[in-house]
Amino acid sequence: MTDDQSTVTEIGETGLHSMEGMEGWSVTLFHHPNDRFSGRRVMVESGKHLVLGRDETPFGEGGLHEKRVSRQHARIWVTEGGKAKVEDLESSNGTKVNGISITRSDLNHNDVITLGGIHLLIHRAPGVFKSCQHAKLIGESHTLSKVIDDIGKVAPHDTTVLVLGETGTGKELVAKALHDASGRSGGFYAVNCGGMPDTLLQSELFGHVRGAFSGAERDRQGLIEAAHGGTLFLDEIGDASPALQVSLLRFLQEGEVRKLGSNRAIRVRTRIIAATHKTLLGSGEEDSFREDLYARLSRWEIRVPPLRERKEDIPHLVKHFLKRLAPGRTLHHRLAFQISQYSWPRNVRELEMVVERALIEAEKKNPIPLTENIVELFKRAVIEPGDSSETIGHKPSTRSLRNPESLRTCLEKHEGNVRLVSKELGVARNTLYRWFKAFDIDPEDYRAE
User: Fold this and answer.
1) How far is C-alpha 134 from the chain's CA centre?
2) Cβ distance 359 to 368 under 8 Å?
3) What is the chain's pLDDT, residue by residue, as a tens digit (449 residues)?
4) How far apart are CA 371 and CA 435, in angstroms?
5) Of the candidates 248, 253, 251, which has an alpha carbon nearest to the alpha carbon of residue 265?
6) Which of 41, 49, 97, 284 has the fewest CB atoms inside 10 Å of its own CB, making it the most exposed?
7) Do the domains spanning 1-132 and 142-303 agree at the CATH topology level?
8) Residues 6 or more apart whose Cβ sits within 8 Å of residue 273
9) Which phi and psi (to 5°) does residue 388 adopt?
């Protein structure tokens, strides 16, 4: 083996790692029959080669030990131009990319390479990489590490924080992590701004005095007052009514609350963390959110990435869920592959649901198999959102979805270049590969000689 074939940087399972000035790609061990290896990651530098096989252990001793993996099974390398490629090294059982057998292939962000019963996820690596671990936020991806880094920076201050992210990404977990790291003596309270009628929500937040409205039979402390010295988390702040926005703005400006039906102001020191999955300003939806309130809430913003932007965290999340729900259980490689190919439109919450449902379907079987019901679950989301490297501009036609001839025609036109087919049809590459598998189409058959 030459020097350039052996130079690889390994990321361990714990601690903080910094790789300044390095560019290239990372390979994450997405699934291994022994789940203690799942989630381990190595970085491949530009111009370097990574050989994979039973005799090659970049993931640690035993990291690629599986009966169908050859001693030297495949190699991955990154060209000087920054393109990632993979080649099968005449292995006994072949190498697959997204379920399609290959001899040599270009690689794209979030492609899955399969060696026997082991799945590897290849993804872009930043020039500066820093991986952190957190008790509440599971994963070691660059995008999640930025969230954890932001929490560490802003937590000790009284600054209001706006947490942005799609439904199911874990915005409340971020708020709790901020509170835990703040050192504040008070408690953590949470309320959903879209979860109850406006009058009731005003009372829930600000409290009321006896007789303030029908049914107010005694004085009641509001959550803002109850959270004095602590944190109040306002989830889905984008659903707050105009009246509630005015009340919140007054509190943030004055640091005082007035119970409904009372003229007496109560000074409190409550930190506000708000969250939304909406675009609060300039969304074209009547622009009903007050700019002055937005300015007060967004002194510091934290964006929680969707799961499709941090697929390398999925092995860590799956292990976390299994440890809590069924210690000692693991996933079958077919189920793990389906998990790797899905776009997770409902994010971490949906992943947890699928793992729990698979456990119920499996009864006592181990590893946990892929069942027909779980396959149907995955089929509900046919179109994947664009990945972090490319924006899909339009949806494919019904003909593209159902007629394999349109796929073959497009492959012929672009000589098997999946990236160009993806661009023309407006379909994410992982979706294309699922269609290729369903229609028994191999892009290699269309590549120019």
Assistant:
1) 15
2) yes
3) 333 333 333 333 333 333 444 457 999 999 999 999 999 999 998 888 999 999 988 999 999 999 999 999 999 999 988 899 999 999 999 999 998 899 999 999 999 999 999 999 999 977 555 656 688 899 999 999 999 999 999 999 999 999 999 999 999 999 999 999 999 999 999 999 988 899 889 999 999 898 877 777 789 899 999 999 999 999 999 999 999 999 999 999 999 999 999 989 999 999 999 999 999 987 555 558 999 999 999 999 999 999 999 999 999 999 999 999 999 999 999 999 999 988 898 999 999 999 999 999 999 999 999 998 998 888 764 433 333 333 333 334 333 344 566 787 788 888 888 888 887 777 777 778 878 877 778 888 887 75
4) 19
5) 251
6) 284
7) no
8) 160, 161, 162, 163, 175, 178, 179, 231, 232, 233, 234
9) -70, -10
Q: Residue 157 corresponds to which tokens in the numbers above?
A: 């201050």
Give the other-Cβ count within 10 Å of 414's Cβ: 18
Report phi then psi at 152, rounded to 5. Answer: -60, -35
Q: Which two tokens stand for residue 49?
A: 């080669």
Q: pTM for the complete prediction? A: 0.81
Q: Where are the domains of the chain?
A: 1-132, 142-303, 398-446
What are the tokens at 428? Answer: 């994410």
Q: Assign domain 1-132 one CATH number from 2.60.200.20, 3.40.47.10, 3.30.9.10, 3.10.350.10.
A: 2.60.200.20
End-to-end CA distance of the chain: 29
Position 165, amino acid: G
DSSP string, 65-88: --TTS-SS-EEEEE-TTS-EEEEE
CA geometry: angle 176, 178, 183, nearest 5 deg: 105
Q: In the CATH scheme, what is the code of domain 142-303? A: 3.40.50.300
Helix pair angle (347-362, 333-341), 10° resolution: 160
Name, in order, each residue with C-beta under 8 angstroms of 353's C-beta and a sequence gap of 6 or more: none
